[in-house]
Amino acid sequence: YILILYDGYGGCILNFRIGKIADLLGMSTEGLRLYERSGIVKPKRGENNTAYRTYGHLDFTALIRARGYHYTGFSTKEIAGLLNAKSVDDILAGYEAQEEKIAQELRYKELLLQNLRELRKKSADAEKNLWKIERRVRPAMYRFPFIRDGNFLIDAEKEAVFHEWLLKTPFVFISQSNEWGKLLSGSTQITAALGIFEEQLSFFDLDMKF
Asked: Is residue 170 reached through a cis peptide bond, with omega within 30 degrees of 0 on the bond before it?
């Protein structure tokens, strides 16, 4: 592969092998070929359809723009759609869809940060609260019990839902409980469940059929 760049007026300004251009752009040569197959760039074939390609300056600038889109989170197919869009509306639709995707990712990161801060606080207070029993009002939450009175509750029908909940950790967590009367009587039998707070449940599409 040889890459030849033109200045737009017919004059050749660069004559690099594809490996050199790949290095300049921080890409692999296979990545450049993928962009070509995807229609992001359309270099001219050499004489007799040889392996050599001739890239114009518009191809080179398209590759730079494609790299920018790549680091903004667009897929190769989406990048090709943006660079070959037939109208501004098509481009705006692509931008809006990516904005929504990034906003969702930021919300997810915010929830992770909130969870981590709460976990750090609980861990810092753990020693002074050791062996203490405290009654408190907690935020509304949903629980998926899987152990009660020493019995495992997950049967074949619930297994798929159980796995779906597990995929949402750390937002889904272990929630253990005991009836207040049993606790005061010294009972060690507990109900173990997967739990998730109501405010976070709205972010996930969890199956509640259990």
From this structure: yes
